[in-house]
Amino acid sequence: MSVTRRPLPAEVVTTRQLTPHLTRITVTGPDLGGFGYDGPDHLVRIFLAPAPDAPLTLPDADGDGWWPAVRAMPDEIRPVVRNYTVRRFDADRRELDIDFVLHGDGGPASAWAGAAAPGDRIGVLSDGAEYAPPADTDWQLFVGDETALPAIAAAIEALPSDAVAVALIECGGTPCEIPIAAPPGVTVHWLHRNGDEPGTSSVVIDTLRSLSLPAGTPYAFVAGESTMVTTVRRHLCGDLDVPKDRVYFCGYWRR
Ligand SMILES: Cc1cc2nc3c(=O)[nH]c(=O)nc-3n(C[C@H](O)[C@H](O)[C@H](O)COP(=O)(O)OP(=O)(O)OC[C@H]3O[C@@H](n4cnc5c(N)ncnc54)[C@H](O)[C@@H]3O)c2cc1C
Fold this sequence. Notes:
The protein has helices at about 65-70, 110-115, 150-155, 205-210, 225-240, and strands at about 10-20, 20-30, 45-50, 80-90, 95-100, 120-125, 140-145, 165-170, 185-190, 220-225, 245-255. By secondary structure, the chain is an alpha/beta fold. Helix 4 packs parallel to helix 5. Bound molecules: flavin-adenine dinucleotide. Flavin-adenine dinucleotide binds near residues 85, 99 and 253.
């Protein structure tokens, strides 16, 4: 099936609370079989109605034309657009799972996800994946907070059985951990913020500095709050001399 790169209408099928602050929303739509899926951190741009009681109007544009089309829409119908990760894509069932961090009602996407119910409307645009460990990688490092957990969990679950990897995942505490089906050579460290606000803890960089990492050529995937990501990248490339092209990094949100 050919891949459609335009905003597609969809609606909520189910919602499932994974942890106190993470909810999985399954959406479906008539054209979602052609959504396309390139890999574990596949980006889905979501389109939400500008207000909870307003209708959802999607921009009528293909490819990169979607953003100018959104900007050209009048305020009262212009949708809210946010970036999320496809946790699971099922072309046959025309379904996507998206795991939303619930960080309160201050953000439209978090507020929408916290109140979502079957039948609620959303738009989704497929926008590709970035995670790409080179063939000569000996071991992988995954670093992220809850916003990167969907990408990191999907990447770990897709690793070959002999893979070597270390994952550092920042979260609120033990109730915020989720099961990840990891091959035996993968060590997952759940790093608790212990009451610190998201985006303010140094637990990730402190742990990374204290760890003895595997030998060989690494590939690192680093995503989450921008300051944490920048600090981790600086440590990897500056202190540990990991070549820049072996570190994928992305600020997923900014405190
Ligand atoms: C490539 C990519 C993939 C992503 N994948 C996911 C994903 O799968 N799941 C997911 O939950 N997020 C994901 N994110 C992050 C998500 O886009 C942001 O958290 C986004 O800001 C949420 O939008 P909002 O409308 O809820 O809040 P916004 O309107 O953007 O922000 C409102 C306020 O909330 C704060 N805020 C935003 N996010 C958080 C947070 N997580 N915790 C605490 N405070 C926050 C902001 O600092 C701001 O003050 C991804 C981002 C990128 C770039």
